[in-house]
């Protein structure tokens, strides 16, 4: 199995996107190569047909770039197809719609969202949709303006949900994949607690629950998701940090196990993963405990398709740590495997 690692290239020795071989039987992970250099490919997404990889580029100057790379079907090596402007600076998240006809990008510094059509070759066409967000939040340092942090297609393929850290909103768009357009939904947004800072989200396998990780308040918000109407309704707000934790912290990433029994969220500062059990009737997460990630600043993590392993990307300690995941209890056990990678920010199983 191939894994691709997105990294920050600024002020590091990183070459950009790294390719790894992963053995799902043993959890062993090893570097096998790097892609043609892309500046700050901090987040990666895979086309549904598995033949093309897309990366956002947090350019140090000017608008961000979305990059399309062809995947060699034999060894998984990447070759550049093309790049296209995201029409805004600080592109930090990229995703692909379920039909494989459009790429969506969140521009953090610009506070905007863009969509780009996917051509028959897998390459990207010029941006076909652009939404400039507006507003602010109560945190003067982090919420002085909009900061679009991610955009995600829902399991039905009809909608996209975007997280705006700067204005404490989750925005809802109807997808017009044939024309690569993002159309504001009839109920186009939902607000969370002021100062929360929405960052990433995860859909439960049942398609009815959405879990949002809030960076600034280090908490998980549960929503009921009504895909027939494109409507979110908040159900619960659960802390992801211990009550007695006093240091600075920024929650980062969130994932569910494939069957939806357990939820994990990363804390940068505590440098640990919060582990939750999901109530099968209400969907409300119940905190089980914490697992240190074996490094500093766990920006991203991933659960392998077999559900047996979790890999944590510790950006500030330049490593990826492998854990065995107990499917019965949700607990995580370090395997002792640690892979050195400069400034890792995203783990993509392919």
Structural key phrases:
mainly beta; 350 residues; Methylamine Dehydrogenase, Chain H; single chain; 28 strands; 54% strand; 0% helix; four-stranded antiparallel β-sheet
* Rounded mean pLDDT score: 97
Radius of gyration: 19 Å
- Note the main sheet: 4 strands, antiparallel
Helical content stands at under 10%
Structural class: mainly beta
Put simply, the count of helices is 0
Identify the strand order in the major beta sheet: 3-2-1-28
- What CATH architecture label of one domain applies? 7 Propeller
Percent of residues in beta strands?
over 45%
Which quaternary structure do these chains form? single chain
Walkthrough of the structure:
This protein has strands at residues 2-7, 18-23, 28-34, 43-46, 52-57, 65-71, 78-85, 91-96, 102-107, 112-117, 129-132, 148-153, 159-164, 169-176, 181-191, 198-203, 209-214, 219-226, 231-239, 250-256, 262-268, 272-278, 285-292, 298-303, 309-314, 319-325, 332-340, 344-349. By secondary structure, it is mainly β. The protein has a domain at 54-239: Methylamine Dehydrogenase, Chain H (7 Propeller), CATH 2.130.10.10. The strands form 7 sheets. Strands 3-2-1-28 form a 4-stranded antiparallel β-sheet, with no helix packed on it. The protein is globular, with a radius of gyration of 19 Å. The chain starts with a strand and ends with a strand.
């Amino acid at each position: 199995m191939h894994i691709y690692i997105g990294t920050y290239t600024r002020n590091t020795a990183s070459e950009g996107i790294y390719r790894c071989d992963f053995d799902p039987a043993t959890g062993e992970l090893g570097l096998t190569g790097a892609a043609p250099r892309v500046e700050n490919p901090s987040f990666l997404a895979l086309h549904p047909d598995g033949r093309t990889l897309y990366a956002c580029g947090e350019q140090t100057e000017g608008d961000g770039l979305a990059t399309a790379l062809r995947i060699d079907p034999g060894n998984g090596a990447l070759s550049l197809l093309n790049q296209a402007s995201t029409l805004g600076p600080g592109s930090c998240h990229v995703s692909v719609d379920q039909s494989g006809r459009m790429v969506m990008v969140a521009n953090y510094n610009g506070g905007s969202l863009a969509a780009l059509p996917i051509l028959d070759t897998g390459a990207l066409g010029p941006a076909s949709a652009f939404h400039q967000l507006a507003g602010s939040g109560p945190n003067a340092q982090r919420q002085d303006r909009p900061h679009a942090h991610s955009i995600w297609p829902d399991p039905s393929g009809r909608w996209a949900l975007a997280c705006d850290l700067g204005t404490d909103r989750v925005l809802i768009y109807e997808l017009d994949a044939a024309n690569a357009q993002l159309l504001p939904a009839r109920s186009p947004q939902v607000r969370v607690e002021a100062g929360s800072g929405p960052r990433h989200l995860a859909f439960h396998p049942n398609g009815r629950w959405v879990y949002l990780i809030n960076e600034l308040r280090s908490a998980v918000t549960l929503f009921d998701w009504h895909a027939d109407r494109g409507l979110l309704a908040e159900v619960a707000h659960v802390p992801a940090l211990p009550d007695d934790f006093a240091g600075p912290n920024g929650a980062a990433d969130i994932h569910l196990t494939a069957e939806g029994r357990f939820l994990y969220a990363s804390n940068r500062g505590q440098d640990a993963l919060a582990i939750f059990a999901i109530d099968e009737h209400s969907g409300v997460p119940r905190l089980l405990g914490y697992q240190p990630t074996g490094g500093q600043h766990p920006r991203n993590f991933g659960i392998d398709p077999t559900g047996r392993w979790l890999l944590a990307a510790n950006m500030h300690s330049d490593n990826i740590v492998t854990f065995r995941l107990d499917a019965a209890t949700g607990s995580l056990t370090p395997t002792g495997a640690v892979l050195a990678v400069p400034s890792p920010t995203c783990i993509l199983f392919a």
